[in-house]
Predict the structure.
Amino acid sequence: MVTANVTLNVRPNVTPNPLADRADLARSLLDLLAPLGDRYSEGCAGYSLGATGALYSPRVALLEGWSRVLWGIAPLLSGGGSFPDLGRHLEGLRRGADPGDTAFWGEPEDSDQRLVEMAAIALSLLIARESFWDPLSPEEKKNLHAWLATIQTRKLPANNWHFFRILVCSAFRRLGLPVDERAEAESFDLVDGLYRGDGWYVDGADANYDFYNPFGFHFYGLVYARLMGDLRPDRAARYVERARLFAPQFLALFREDGSVVPYGRSLGYRFAVTSFFSACAFAGVEAVPWAVMKGVVLRNLRWWFARPILDASGVLTVGYAYPNLVMAEQYNSPGSPYWALKAYLPLALGDDHPFWTAEEAPLPSPLPAAGPAMRLATPHWIVNRSEEDVQLLCPGRYPPWEAVQAAAKYCKFAYSARFGFSVSHGAWALSQTGCDSMLVLSEGDGYWRERRKTSDQASGPDWTSGRWRPWDDVEIVTTLLALGAWHVRVHRIRSARRLETVEGGFSVPRFLGEGLPETPEILIADAEGPAPAGASVAFSWAASRIEDRLLPAEAPYAAPAAPAAPATPAASARRSAGILTLAPNLNILHPHAVLPVLRGSILPGETILACAVRAGDRGPTLSALPPRLEKSGGGIRVIEADGREHRI
């Protein structure tokens, strides 16, 4: 059921759009593309969209924006729609691929960004041949084929990039052009080698589970299944089956308002996150009911278009829920965000397709899990659901290469659809560390270390854990337990050094809109007698709370890295509570954020830190009783307010 109209950032001359059907989706695409008409570069072979830089040259950045809009234009044309600037885009295709033209895109090298942008051109040739191939002269076809064919001989990163080669080879097959079958087979084999089962791929050897599953591997696999399944039915069936396994797990990360838990790199592609379901529709794969699938895609688009993601001229900005270069990737140019148009793939389907004829439905209730926790076993993720939020509890998995803000994007304890997470401006000032949902540690010199590389990831029905070492002689095993609105964190620390610690709850927005600021209700309880510390910060729109949990001592323990260090009992260290205001533009959902924190210090030896955390609506967040923790038979027993018990 459609509940509201949205406008693309309330731009002038854009009619409110309910995004309820295929015509609405097409209109929203054209509204997004309209401001680009006066941004064509020389020869119409690129878009000049801004002055910020990326890893590659400004010339390649022009191509990136130009090619990425094809993710929306090609489905629009394939489905019978029209694009007013098709003539100019076709001119860009002709001139960009011509090595003798001043607008030539250039010869791609190994691991070149231009190889990435070939995928959208390949899709255009596959589903809109009459618009992008048939009008070319024999010489122009020869040029385009030669330029695209370089992907068959270039070295590619051992990750989702190999699907770009697969799509180009698929286009060649359909156009009757020669294919380097050895290179194609290499890419097929590499993609299969990255599959880990139960619907999950890693994006490179020893790499991460992240959103390159939905908008990368599965998106391309489903496109391949639809377009090449008659030639390779076994391979197509394999991709479809993997997508079916993945769908219910991924669905659990969405809220009813259309938002999704943000996690990992490339979040700046925004609504590309729903392109998985768009590709399911395109491939005719009812991985979840059509009505549910339609609702997820359209609600997510409505959620995005209600946020300031466009600049004053209507161009998509680099950032997430607002323009933000702090969280941007090193490979994000001004044209990068148009990767989001992959969500528009259902425009290639007719009005009579079941995706479009179905009446939009809400998320399944309950989702396919018993209780608030849903375990995604392969990545060891725990989805923690309540009426107020959807959160993702993670054991931590650092990328094999130094991605921008990698610790923030992959190693937080929890990620929230409602409150997002914060990135970092630096490690010296606590307000710049972005320490929400994180334990940071310091030797007292003001330099704070966070969780980064993690090993020994494990999980159970409602818990996940990982081992990390902020120093060589400091080992921490963090276990996270999902309880719905609450989650519990337990850190078992073995340290050869004295350390200061700060642990953050969820950060919540300090301001809502442009009205006068609201004074928050702040509650701080210091540890007194047997009572532990706790803090909360509450506004009319949201509240966040963290409660320290104390545990009795166990046997003494001496850190093995420093045998002479004095042994200390394995007891909870008492902490104090407080409120921390973050530097601006760190939280990816809200430019101004504040959070409750626990602060303390630990001595050499073994220490346990534990806390209970929640965030959501003001009333229940402030009034709910936190769970209790007790030692029990070498483990820890967690008792909820209603008496339910868990062991970790």
Summary: The radius of gyration is 26 Å. The chain has two domains: 22-357, 373-647. The domain at 22-357 is CATH 1.50.10.20 (Glycosyltransferase). The longest strand covers residues 605-616.
